[in-house]
């Protein structure tokens, strides 16, 4: 099975691409209907200053034409279970055609498809918050059956804080359901807390290993026999006691009663419960922090994937955002499928996985692969086109677009030049419509204003001769490694799709090899004594 990243509406992707009963584990972290805008923050290489803030998604839902169509589909389609129809109708009658109804209708349609693709041994984890968790649980009961409800996990997602006139909200809810009665399950454990260790493992043996002594006397039925002069109702048969004695695992009290020596380092920890307070949120200094809104800790997804899947299984995240579930699945040797509706997210995930796992293999489906597809994307949504085009030149978006606030920059590129105390800075502009030489003159001014080392002008149309001439007049700059980089490079989408890349100020392979040789080869004229004189 090939790891796959899909761009598009997950309802369409599920129906078109994902086969029945092909998925072992589903994790979804959909928007919570919290009525907020969420931005992704991009930072400079040193991490000290935000250079870009782009709206990743709006968590607003409205009862519109699409919600109405989905509602009618759920009520009229014969493939939708009757209990789901009854619930959807009841929720609509109770809530009316408002934002919450729109959210629940959207979720119901997708949960039906997620159940279809899940194996009989599979599980699904729905991550939500108290805004709609009570309604979502009803929908999950209807789609997956109440008898397949396994747990409501409470995850403490943030630290204590004060809310006006109410209790501080610090937790998320994760609803855990199986598809059937024989679901994959691997017991998970967490570390003992210090209070438990102090009370239960407060003894040491001669080697300094912590231990506790546990009773071997059975309170009810057991094995009655004499052991070392003491007759008791023992938990173990005599042969097992003899084995423990030979292994040095028995301790004898003053009255001669045997007790079992249990070492702390042999214990897996406390069996995992349904309240998780031991996985902290991602703080501003965390290495895994990507700046993506609602990003969840990698440890949280690792725990879920370890508990409900095995190596080689297939993990699906239909709202994959910045790709934490995919990251955890790759790390734990599972296959994975991710779906997201923005090129912004797809680009973040692609970079994240390639940075962390240089040998990772996956395909991306739904992005333009030819000029016709690029034109269609530009016509349907120019910002999605812009984000997609920026990824083709390894740029990150710059600034949220607002009417009347165009800075002339759509993306930025930092090329590291380690050892010379700077990073080369490039700015990018993307054009999906008509282009002319005046735009190149304006771009030249933008490069000067931003004190950028160079600029890349991406165009869907072929550039004119005047545009190319104007770009050449901007001149060149010489990098630390002596290569001449045009101040303005014009490159077409068609060229990028054919594998062409702009010229970046990066060290050549021969330069890197030479520097490595310098580091590895000691100076023959430098004696050991020189270090101290």
In short:
With 533 residues, this protein is an alpha/beta fold.
Structural class: alpha/beta
**Terminal CA distance:** 63 Å
CATH class of the largest domain: Alpha Beta
Number of strands: 26
How big a fraction of the residues is strand? Answer: 25-35%
Briefly note the CATH topology name of the largest domain: Rossmann fold
CATH architecture title of the largest domain: 3-Layer(aba) Sandwich
Major sheet = 9 strands, mixed
Q: List low-confidence stretches.
A: 33-59, 401-405, 508-533
Q: Which strands sit side by side, in order, in the main sheet? A: 16-6-7-5-2-17-18-1-19
Mean pLDDT: 86
- CATH superfamily of the largest domain, by name, is Vaccinia Virus protein VP39
**Count of discrete domains:** 3
Categorize the overall geometry: globular
Question: Main attributes?
Answer:
disordered C terminus, alpha/beta, 16 helices, Trna Endonuclease, Chain: A, domain 1, Rossmann fold, five-stranded mixed sheet, 533 residues
Structural write-up:
This protein has 533 residues and is an alpha/beta fold. It has a nine-stranded mixed beta sheet, sandwiched between helices. A five-stranded mixed beta sheet has the order 20-21-22-23-26, sandwiched between helices. A four-stranded antiparallel beta sheet has the order 9-10-14-13. The chain contains 16 helices and 26 strands. Helix 2 (65-76) runs antiparallel to helix 3 (82-95), helix 3 runs antiparallel to helix 4 (99-117) and helix 3 packs antiparallel against helix 5. The chain is globular, with a radius of gyration of 30 Å.
């Amino acid at each position: 099975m090939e790891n796959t990243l899909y761009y598009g509406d997950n309802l369409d992707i599920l129906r078109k691409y994902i086969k029945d009963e092909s998925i072992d584990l589903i994790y979804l972290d959909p928007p919570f209907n919290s009525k907020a805008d969420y931005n992704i923050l991009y930072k400079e290489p040193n991490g000290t200053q935000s250079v870009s803030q782009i709206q990743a998604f709006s968590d607003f839902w409205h009862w519109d034409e699409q919600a109405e169509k989905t509602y009618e589909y759920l009520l009229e389609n014969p493939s939708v279970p009757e209990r789901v129809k009854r619930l959807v109708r009841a929720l609509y009658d109770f809530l009316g055609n408002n934002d919450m109804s729109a959210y629940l209708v959207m979720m119901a349609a997708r949960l039906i498809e997620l159940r279809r693709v899940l194996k009989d041994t599979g599980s699904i984890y729905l991550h939500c918050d108290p805004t709609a968790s009570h309604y979502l649980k009803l929908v999950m009961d209807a789609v997956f059956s109440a008898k397949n409800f396994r747990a409501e996990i409470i995850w403490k997602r943030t630290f204590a804080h004060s809310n006006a006139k109410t209790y501080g909200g610090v937790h998320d809810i994760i609803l855990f359901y199986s598809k059937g009665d024989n679901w994959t399950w691997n017991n998970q454990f967490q570390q003992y807390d210090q209070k438990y260790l102090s009370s239960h493992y407060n003894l040491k043996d001669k080697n300094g290993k912590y231990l506790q002594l546990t009773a071997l006397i059975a309170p009810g039925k057991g094995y009655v026999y004499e052991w070392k002069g003491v007759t008791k109702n023992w938990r173990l048969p005599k042969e097992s006691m003899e084995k423990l004695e030979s292994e040095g695992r028995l301790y004898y009290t003053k009255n001669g009663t045997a007790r079992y020596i249990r070492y702390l380092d042999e214990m897996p920890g406390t069996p995992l419960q349904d309240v998780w307070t031991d996985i902290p949120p991602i703080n501003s200094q965390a290495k895994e922090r990507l700046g993506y809104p609602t990003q969840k800790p990698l440890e949280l997804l690792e725990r879920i994937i370890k508990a409900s899947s095995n190596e080689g299984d297939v993990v699906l995240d239909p709202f994959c955002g910045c790709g934490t579930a995919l990251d955890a699945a790759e790390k734990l040797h599972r296959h994975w499928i991710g779906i997201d509706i923005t090129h912004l997210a797809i680009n973040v995930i692609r970079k994240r996985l390639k940075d962390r796992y240089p040998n990772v293999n996956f395909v991306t489906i739904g992005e333009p692969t030819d000029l016709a597809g690029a034109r269609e994307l530009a016509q349907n949504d120019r910002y999605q086109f812009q984000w997609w085009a920026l990824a083709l030149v390894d740029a990150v978006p710059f600034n949220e677009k607002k009417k009347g606030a165009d800075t002339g920059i759509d993306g930025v590129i930092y090329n590291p030049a380690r050892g010379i105390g700077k990073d080369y800075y490039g700015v990018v502009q993307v054009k999906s419509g008509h282009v002319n030489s005046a735009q190149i003159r304006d771009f030249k001014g933008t490069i000067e204003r931003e004190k950028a080392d160079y600029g890349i002008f991406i165009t869907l149309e072929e550039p004119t001769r005047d545009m190319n001439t104007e770009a050449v007049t901007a001149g060149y700059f010489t990098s630390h490694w002596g290569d001449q980089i045009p101040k303005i490079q014009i490159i077409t989408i068609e060229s990028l799709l054919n594998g062409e890349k702009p010229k970046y100020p990066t060290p050549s392979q021969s330069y890197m090899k030479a520097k490595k040789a310098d580091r590895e080869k000691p100076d023959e004229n430098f004696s050991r004594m020189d270090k101290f004189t």
